[in-house]
């Protein structure tokens, strides 16, 4: 600013407020500097290259057998191009290349329009014709016991179309609207097996129907002929006046597996009584010496194997022919220990005072007052690597003092005890709960059962029957033979079937409730090849009672007034 005077500019700044004129030299310098910066900014802006507009590219779209030409801006995606060309599409359409792909000049877009249609139709389910052999009818005689009725199901198909042409048609849903009812015809099949006098009542399940024998194996009559008994529960009351059983539910098994019923065995056939209990898989049984009172445990149905999740609960239900069932919760639902999802079993002592339980990891006593399970003996749970769990068999001694069960024994090989294939028959006294091994390597399905008390000198004694696996190291798939021994494990001997014949399927042997007149020992009842057999435990003499091959469950009780 050298050579310039503030006086020269006085008239220029005269119109400004006075404070702007103070220190005029300094002010002029600041203003000049601003002009210089502004000039450089304009110069810099002018030096920039001019903005170029985006070029357009040519693409084509194939849709519904048409080819549409379109121009879009370079750098557009397939999605941008379809939007620009106003071509509508859905998520199910097949577009190539994918929507996110950047396009270049000359690219082609293929749009295949895809849609699906559902077709519903109802289809008749023809009823089946079932023939039930009945040994109480003369050979060849027929009797229609249930009319058949067709069922109805809804079928849904899904068809997929591409550009209007059907490319697939699949069944996606099948729902049963009404179950078919089988037509059941009873055909006479009297056999030549000699009748045997029997004490009490034998109940047996044959072809989904319940029958009983009274006084003699030749005296048979039906109790329930609906053909829908599932065999999970089948038990006579202690006085043989009622039969407890389960029936298949008419609902979807994922909603309800079965229902619990009771029917009187006395006099003319009567209608079964619904006990208002459902999903009873493992246990339902009578409490001895307490009238018509039943205890049961439930499960929750599931779609996944094994078809349920056990509740490990306990209920009681009291009823009679004159008043409706009254249900009471004894123990609420619980996890049930190791593999508790499978469930547990229970067994009343003969005097009806104590209830024992068995589950995959041990046995114990039910504390009904506090609603708890009190363990007596821990058992190593078997790892089946499958959708089922092993529950040890359990039986009370006839004197109410001993418990007999099957325990999981360690293996001599290097496998863990959880995978050991060996099982022993053991016993324990309630007064001294220590395990007593009675018979080694019996197999996992040994299922002990005890006979009635018999006087012997100054005390009463009883026998124990159990199943011995023919191949103990493969007891899961092995067949078995019935073995009888004294309560302390002595005098062990096989009684059925003979060694040169095929073994029996796993089951609980059923002892006669009283001696059979004229027979040496106590009698056992078992099913073998679908028929009822009675075996003398002393002589091992066996008697075939039925020949229709349809029997799956049996029970035997004294008939008391």
Q: Can you walk me through this structure?
A:
With 561 residues, the chain is mainly beta. Among the domains are: 6-47; 56-111, Roll (Ubiquitin-like (UB roll)), CATH 3.10.20; 116-178, Resuscitation-promoting factor rpfb fold (Single Sheet). Helix content is 6%, strand content 45%. The protein contains 3 helices and 42 strands. The strands form 12 sheets. A 4-stranded mixed beta sheet has the order 2-1-4-3, with helices on one face. Strands 13-12-11-42 form a 4-stranded antiparallel beta sheet, with no helix packed on it. A hairpin with a 6-residue loop joins β18 and β19. The protein starts with 17 loop residues before the first helix and ends with a strand. Residues 1-25, 27-31 and 42-52 have low confidence and may be disordered.
Uncertain runs with pLDDT below 50, 5 residues or more?
Answer: 1-25, 27-31, 42-52
Q: What percentage of residues falls in helices of 4 or more residues?
A: under 10%
Named at the architecture level, the CATH assignment of the domain at 116-178 is Single Sheet
By DSSP, the count of extended strands is: 42
Report the CATH superfamily of the domain at 116-178. Answer: Resuscitation-promoting factor rpfb
| Broad shape | elongated
User: Please, how many helices?
Assistant: 3
Q: For the record, what CATH class of the domain at 116-178 applies?
A: Mainly Beta
Topology:
Blueprint: H1 18-21, H2 24-47, E1 56-63, E2 66-73, H3 78-84, E3 94-96, E4 108-112, E5 114-125, E6 129-134, E7 142-146, E8 151-162, E9 165-178, E10 183-188, E11 197-206, E12 209-216, E13 220-224, E14 229-236, E15 242-248, E16 258-264, E17 273-278, E18 284-286, E19 293-296, E20 299-301, E21 308-310, E22 314-318, E23 326-331, E24 345-348, E25 355-359, E26 362-367, E27 372-378, E28 394-396, E29 402-409, E30 422-429, E31 432-439, E32 449-450, E33 454-456, E34 459-461, E35 463-469, E36 480-486, E37 493-496, E38 510-511, E39 523-528, E40 531-536, E41 542-544, E42 551-557
Parallel strand pairs: 1-4, 6-10
Antiparallel strand pairs: 1-2, 3-4, 5-8, 7-10, 8-9, 11-12, 11-42, 12-13, 14-15, 15-16, 16-17, 18-19, 19-22, 20-21, 22-23, 24-25, 25-26, 26-27, 28-29, 29-30, 30-31, 32-35, 33-34, 35-36, 36-37, 38-39, 39-40, 40-41
